[in-house]
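LOG
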Amino acid sequence: MLASSIGADHVHAILESLERTGAHLAEIKWDGLRGLTRIEAGRVVELRGRPSKPHQPGADQRHRFPEIIEALPAILKDHKSIVLDGEIGLLDPTGSMMEFHAVQQRPQTDRDGITLDAIRNPMTYVVFDILEVNGVSTMSHSYEARHALLRKILRPAPRVQFSEVTPRVVDLYERMVRIGGEGIMVKNRHAPYEPCKPGQKSKQWLKAKAGNHRDNLDVVGLTQGTGAREDLGSLILAKKTERGWQYHGRAGSGITHTQIAAILAELSTAQRETCPLVETPEIRKPLRCWIEPGIVKADVAWERAVAEDPRHPRVKGLSIRGLTIQ
């Protein structure tokens, strides 16, 4: 199932209304890679991502997450087979958020790279639904019954945990806002599981994002662009800390042609040979140049930041040497 979104303008009023009905439960919105898992006879035979085309299964992800594949069979108590729905990601120290960039950066095919990343950044599979037990579908059961069954027949294991649910919808949302989380999922406790086509949303699952963030960041480098934006792909962003300049992601959306021209005109005096950051980040795009901090600043909005890496960043404003560039 895919969730429908609650509009940001009235999110509190809607969540309060849903909580008052007593018909809904809330859980954390995990920001990782969706994973449908089938375990048979003590072996993980499927771990598939979300399908991108109708009537086709998602891509098999077993080879990318060996630490999870090793752990999953241990969750079964007395049952031969099971199908689960959940999210794969790198949990932060609080266990309440996933670092979205980490699962994106897990290699796709490089076996040595996958093995090394599994050691350095071990992922966790957070289970939030159960679709089949011993060949019998549970999808017609209510969400509340499915979650109770999940807790009854499975045991937690290293790298596998259950998504906690609560009837206190507003409290959980406000907690996620305070800690900078992705948001929450609100699910009808009486609803069955609805298999959806790719892109199709269910009205039984609602998501409420915890809000956008905005900050004024220094531009410390540029990536090479392509096509009509060949001269500039994105801005490499940083923020000053006690340790020095820390990487804060990249932003390419929202930059105007006038702003690009102004940045390029400044390169003769702003460009530098070495990376000004405390640690050189993995940019994953061809680097055009590094820029001296303090010259170009960008007002950037994003959904949320994890590990100093804004998600869906967009440039809202830009200044060079204190002069605003439209």
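LOG (cont.) second protein
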Amino acid sequence: MALGVLIFLAIMLLFLGYQNLNREKELQLKRLLGLEKSMSRKEKRQAFKSYGDLMAQAAVDLSGEAFFIICIISGAVLLVAGASFFSHPLVGLILLPVGYNLPRLWAGQKIKKRADIMLEQMTVVLDIVATVMRSGGQFVKALTRVAEKVPAPMGTEFRQILNDINAGKTVSEALSMAEKRIPLVEFSIFALSYRINSQTGGNLAQVYDEKSTDLNEQKRMLDVMNSYTSQGRTSAAIVAVMPFAVVFVIRIISPDYLDPLLQTAWGPFVVAMCVASILIGYRLTRNMATFTRK
């Protein structure tokens, strides 16, 4: 039994390591582009989407500490529910990390949905800023025009940028603060372009025009690729859900049917292996069938 628990924990650590590897790649990209401020080593380990960052990027009026408590409560609920429903404490322990990560998954989905809307609006933002600056307007005037013309959520963020500037922040500082709230690499590049231009000079309107054209072309190509792979994503979701649905129905119809499996020495380990394999397989399959902007 102890060996089974250790093997299950090893599998979960491998899965978490895979996620952290992707996060580290994004951090390396930001370092390469100069988007990461100088931080201590401890801050860098915590830099990728802390609980407070999750709430800010999801536009949820909740502190990071409160969200952390919600994650703990969710994990505890699934721990008790799993142990009670399957009459075995190991099943509850298996569901504990699942419950802990459910609020994070919810926040991640809200961030993704918000980021998708913002990405659609980003080309409009670039076009407006380029047009204003090409006609001789200042950068702050261009930001004001964006805040007036673009709807939420991007318009709301630009109004917050203007509020920060009016409160005494420099444009660069206001843009840096907005980068923590806007989950887009494209916006970070937008802010970086301004910072470089303010120091070295150049045709910023032309830079934003070219970036807008690139975004439109990327969107067209990604739409084509995702339309080709939509069936793969649907199949992955159905295959991942079916085992849990079957177990739930069997448990309702015949509550004692799974007792021989759960009450044997290796039974809970087999369940843990199955759950881990399903989750990892679903994640890998969906990642292979999904094309996103990085």
